[in-house]
Amino acid sequence: MTSPLKIVKAAEEWQIGEFFQESVGKWRSERRYYTLPTGNTKEMVSAIAIRFLEQGCEELQKLAQLHELPDSVSLVCGTEVIWETTNSMTGKQESQGSTLFGALGNILYRDRGFATSKPVTAEYYFPNPKTLCLRTEYNGSVFEEELKLIGNKYRTRQTIMSRASEQLMIGQYLETRLENDYLK
Fold first, then answer.
1. The Cα angle at residue 125 between residues 120 and 129, in degrees rounded to 5
2. Phi-psi category of 26—alpha, beta or left, where left has phi over 0 and alpha has psi -120 to 50?
3. Whole-angstrom Cα distance, residue 38 to residue 95?
4. Which among 61, 76, 98, 99 has the fewest CB atoms less than 10 Å away?
């Protein structure tokens, strides 16, 4: 008999694989960050490219090594996200880079965090098949994020950053799919 824990783990891994595959492509991300409690805002636009990573690929093997996972453990799937961000008001390029995500059970392994270049992990769950919720903690900060697929052309995201139980920043995003195929 299969244990309920193994069934839940398999369901989470199946859902994250589906979600990652549905996110593949090139996206335009329009973002607004609210600094709390002042209410100062910053508006950004990002070009994002998302590629699905299959179990056993070189990128996921390197990610597992970064997290010092045993050789017997294999991340089930993942994504590579590449971005280039521009300040909407000034037109100045703010940042560019890439990050890797790999899933195992209800944990997402990342090669870097929002505010650190060090590897981090996030717990994730799905309140429904089109909505991914993440919770990441490091350096005394908590990042809670919700990504929601809306049809085939849109995603919304919201990030809330807190420290010592005080909310410091809210990021809201509307992402529009430009291309379905990462390789175009």
1. 130
2. beta
3. 24
4. 98
| Residue 59 CB contacts under 8 Å (≥ 6 apart), including other chains | 53, 78, 80, 100
Q: Which tens digits make up the pLDDT trace of 62-109? A: 999 999 999 889 999 999 999 999 888 888 888 899 999 999 999 999
The span from the CA of 24 to the CA of 89, in Å, is 28
Backbone angles phi, psi at 16, to 5 degrees: -65, -35
CB 113 within 8 A of CB 120: yes
Please provide the DSSP assignment of the chain as one string: ---HHHHHHHHHHHHHHHHHHHH-EEEEEEEEEEETTTTEEEEEEEEEEEEEEETT-HHHHHHHHHTT--TT----EEEEEEEEEEETTT--EEEEEEEEEEEETTEEEESS-SS-SS-EEEEEEEEETTEEEEEEEETTEEEEEEEEEETTTEEEEEEEEEETTEEEEEEEEEEEEEES-TT-
For residue 140, what are its two tokens?
């005394």
